[in-house]
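The instructor's notes for this session suggest beginning with a concrete chain rather than abstract definitions. Hand out the sequence below and ask the class to guess, before any prediction is shown, which regions might be ordered.
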Amino acid sequence: MSEQAVSLYNGFSMPLLGLGTWHHGDQKEMTEAIRFSVQEGFRHIDCAYVYGNEKEVGVVFGEIIGEGKEVDRSDIFIAGKLWCTEHAADRVEAACRSSLADLGLDYFDLYIVHWPSGFVPGHGNVPRDEDGKVMFSGVSIEETWGAMEKLVDLGLVRSLGLSNFNSKQVTRIIDMARIRPAVLQVESNPRFNNEALRSFCAGQSIVMVAFSPFGSPDLPWGAKLPHILADPILKGISDRVGHSTAQVVLRWQVQRGVGVIPKSVIQTELTDNLGVWGWELSKEDMKLVDGLETGVRKIVPIIKMSDGSVKIRDEDDEHFPFGFVEGQE
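After discussion, reveal the predicted structure:
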């Protein structure tokens, strides 16, 4: 197994470096970034229904993936995600098939439950009642997982995963699962390294994949902080090892056994991200990056209420994952 990929517990291989496809700008920028990334050597593309760009991504997939094209389907790892309105057992398969059709694919290498909270279907992606409150479905995570397992039986999906679940919720799934989760995708970066959850995953043969590995400075959520790549500690390491601060951050994650799916539409950044291989951070430098931990989570979706106030989207649901502090049983 190359250092560039990790073997999941079920024997399938997952490239550790991927490209995230959540983009609030012109989707043509994202599709061109996908095309360029695959041409440059990226072999893991992370997609999701709620990103609102599956059809556009599907067009570029059709142009670059397949026999005689840029890459064979068997040589690229593609992840998709089940949205919150589709958690009921009788909706999961149709949602998966719809995403596959839009992306022009026959199967997902990895299909992920995007959030633990289910929403009432038929009223948009984030349904709200007349008071502005989110309409939660109350579908259990166990019901959803049972339907996810059937996707593997049908050959629509090779591996299953979770995103934004805490370790208690993952344990609930493991305890009832016929097919265990192979991946847990969560926020992780030097300021919020999620080490307790990474350690939990390692003990359960689950690979943790980090989204927002650079702290998502462009998102309006959470505290306004200086860009993580401008951190003087990271810049000091960068100067010493002769690699960019972005490469230092990505290398730190890879050496922790964590996959990374940074998003960018800028070609120089995409090429730079590929420079994570063929060198190592010392134990001392790894500890320096570990020392940037603040414990402050940024990726917590919010909604605006009619009075102009802001509220955490899922906090009133029983499945809200972030009320539990990892490592404090």
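Then share the key points. The mean pLDDT is 95. Residues 27-40 form the longest helix (14 residues).
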